[in-house]
Write a structure and sequence with these properties.
By secondary structure, this protein is mostly helical. Helix content is 72%, strand content 2%. A two-stranded antiparallel ribbon has the order 1-2. The protein is elongated.
C-alpha cells in the first residue's frame, strides 16, 4: 500500500472543501474533478500539492487547520457515499492487469513461425538477382547458409523444442499475470473501507513523531537525522503543527468508526 499522508495533509489540493463554494471557485475545481482526485489520492497515495500550494502556504496555522478539517469532512462524506463506491470500482477496474492477449493456439503460432521463416528465405533468394554483381557471391553464400539452417530446423526434434519454448513462454506470461493480479488485489481492495483504513493508519504512523520545533539551515534540517526522514514526515513538518494535529485527530476518530 502506498502512503496516505499526502492525501490527508494536502487534502486541500483535492477540493479545498467542495462545500465552500468561494474557495472551490477560486481554485477552479469542479465537483467532478474534486471527486476524481479524491479517488486517485486514496487509491494511489499521490496528491498534486502544487495546485493550491501558494494558498495553503500563505494561510495562517489556524486557517490551514480549518482548511484541512473542512476538506476532510467533505472527503469523509464523499467516501461514505454510494457515488464513491461506483467511482472507486470503476477506477479499480481500469487499473486491473489484463491477461496476455493471444489470437493463436500453440500449434498455430508454431506454424506461423515456420511460415515466416520460409517467406524470409524466399525473399532472400529473390533479392540475390537484385544484388550488385560485386556483392552477389556473398548474397548467394548467405542464402545457402540460411537454407541449410532452415533444413536443420525442419525436423521433429527442433519443432518439439520450439513448441516447448512457446509453451514455457506462455506459462511464464500467465504466472506474471497472476502476480500482477495479486498486487492489484492488495493495492486496490474490493472493499474501499480497507483502503481508507490502511491510508489512515499509514498517515498516523508517518506523523507520529514529527518535531515541529526542528530548526532549518536554509531548506535543510539542522539535525542531519531529520534529513533522512521520509518525505511524508517532512511534508507534515512543513504543513505545521495545528493542521497536522487536526488531521491526526480526525483520522483517529474516523478509524474508530471503521
Amino acid at each position: 500500500m502506498k502512503r496516505f499522508v499526502g492525501a490527508v495533509l494536502c487534502a486541500v489540493t483535492l477540493t479545498a472543501a467542495v462545500g465552500a463554494g468561494d474557495v472551490l471557485s477560486d481554485l477552479k475545481i469542479s465537483k467532478k474533478d474534486a471527486a476524481s482526485e479524491t479517488v486517485q489520492s486514496l487509491a494511489g497515495g499521490q496528491v498534486n500539492t502544487w495546485r493550491v500550494r501558494s494558498v495553503f502556504k500563505a494561510a495562517s496555522p489556524a486557517t490551514r487547520a480549518a482548511l484541512v478539517e473542512q476538506t476532510l469532512i467533505w472527503t469523509k462524506a464523499y467516501v461514505n457515499s454510494a457515488q464513491f463506491g461506483k467511482d472507486y470500482a470503476a477506477y479499480r477496474e481500469q487499473a486491473k492487469p489484463q491477461p496476455p492477449e493471444r489470437t493463436q493456439t500453440v500449434d498455430e503460432e508454431l506454424a506461423q513461425r515456420k511460415k515466416e521463416r520460409e517467406e524470409q528465405l524466399a525473399e532472400a533468394k529473390k533479392n540475390i538477382s537484385e544484388t550488385p554483381a560485386e556483392y552477389r557471391k556473398f548474397a548467394e553464400e548467405g542464402y545457402k547458409a540460411a537454407a541449410a539452417a532452415m533444413k536443420q530446423m525442419d525436423t521433429a526434434e527442433f519443432r518439439k523444442m520450439e513448441r516447448d519454448g512457446i509453451v514455457m513462454q506462455r506459462k511464464q506470461e500467465d504466472e506474471n499475470h497472476e502476480e500482477e493480479l495479486a498486487r492489484w488485489e492488495e493495492e486496490y481492495p474490493a472493499d474501499p473501507k480497507e483502503l481508507v483504513k490502511a491510508r489512515l493508519e499509514q498517515f498516523l504512523e508517518a506523523t507520529e513523531d514529527v518535531d515541529f520545533d526542528a530548526k532549518l539551515n536554509g531548506r535543510k534540517f539542522a539535525n542531519a537525522q531529520y534529513e533522512r526522514k521520509p518525505q511524508e514526515w517532512k511534508l507534515a513538518y512543513r504543513a505545521g503543527k495545528e493542521p497536522v494535529e487536526k488531521a491526526r485527530a480526525f483520522a483517529e476518530a474516523w478509524l474508530k468508526e471503521l
